[in-house]
Amino acid sequence: MRSIDEIFIGDLLSGELAPFLKAVKEKPDQLSLEVRGGYVSIYYEGGSLLKITQQSRGHYKFTFDPKYCLNKSDTSAYEVISKFEPYSAETYAANLPLLMREMDSWFLAHPKPERDFQHTLLVSNPEIVDIEYQIGKRMRLDMLAVHAGKLMVIENKYGSGAVTGSAGLAKHYKDMCEVLSDKALYSEMIGSVVRISEAKYALGLTDRAIPETEITDAEILFLLAGYNERSKTAANETEKMEQTLPAKLLLMKETDSIISWDKAQDLFVR
Fold first, then answer.
1. Is 66 helix (H, G, I), strand (E, B) or coil?
2. pTM
3. Which of 14, 90, 161, 178 matches a 20 to 30 Å C-alpha distance to 137?
4. Residue 260's CB: how many other CB atoms inside 10 A?
5. Alpha carbon distance 260, 119 (integer Å)
């Protein structure tokens, strides 16, 4: 279950981790802080910038993925970053700009518009509670949200080409149905959503915490950005689905930022 304890929250608010929370609040269009199981991940424009793991009471380890430094001939930044003391909050806080510059360089060489789109949705829609929700080795859910009393299990697709194949709509629908039908996994998801919302509220990142009693049902939602409405690929994927649970589809433009929840169409209604 995803959560962090009161000590972790206190250190983010006023302890040695406070500079990281301050940076997230100052740059909400670029940075987000996501609660994991005993650690937090700070995302930069949709990519994982820094992992802060609680080792013991008041002690933390900092992890930056070195791959972001290794996409160009100049490896001087990697040589500097690789020597950082992994338990030094002060070092990593002081060098956040350097880490972000290295990620900028990586993104320039490896653009991922779907990552940018997801980050835009995250910062623009308060209903979204979490992103990149990993369920064991089964699958990773793009986003979890709570809207109108429902747990929204969301899969983002960017461009018509992302709709089919081994990671297409039909495969994701099957996996989502299996997860939602598993009582233990479903209960864990609800618990995570509640605790994540409580932590984010305590940190001043959201306007409220979500009580468990508010979530009375679940719904599958596919968000398709930049999808050619004349294409039949989504309809063809729908034909492959065993209609186990209801699902909805919402088409969005690449420039959209607000999810129009009420405009989502029932996937199986023709």
1. helix
2. 0.94
3. 161
4. 10
5. 17
> Cα separation of 189 and 153, whole Å?
10
Q: Which residues of 151-174 are buried (b: 16+ CB within 10 A; e: fewer)?
A: bbbbbbbbebebbbeeebbbbbbe
Give 84-107 pLDDT, tens digit per residue: 999 999 999 999 999 999 999 999
Are residues 9 and 44 in contact, defined by beta-carbon separation less than 8 angstroms? no
SS3 state of residue 103: helix
Q: Distance (Å, rounded) from C-alpha 88 to C-alpha 14?
A: 16
State whether residue 146 is helix, strand or coil: strand
Q: Which two tokens stand for residue 48?
A: 């994982």
pLDDT tens readout for residues 192-242 = 999 999 999 999 999 999 999 999 999 999 999 988 888 889 889 999 999
| Cα atoms found within 13 Å of the Cα of residue 93, Cβ hemisphere only | 16
Who's near 14: CB < 8 A, 6+ residues apart?
A: none
The C-alpha atoms of residue 251 and residue 158 are separated, in whole angstroms, by: 10
Query: What phi and psi values does residue 18 have, to the nearest 5 degrees?
Result: -55, -35
- Closest to 161 measured CA to CA, from 254, 69, 68, 226: 226
The CA distance from 52 to 61, in Å, is 6
CA–CA distance, 130 with 3 (Å, rounded to integer) = 11
Task: Give the tokens for residue 57.
Answer: 């009471």
Tally of CB atoms within 10 A around 104: 13
- CA 23-129-161 angle, to 5 degrees, is 100
Nearest CA among 65, 199, 222, 182 for reference residue 130: 199
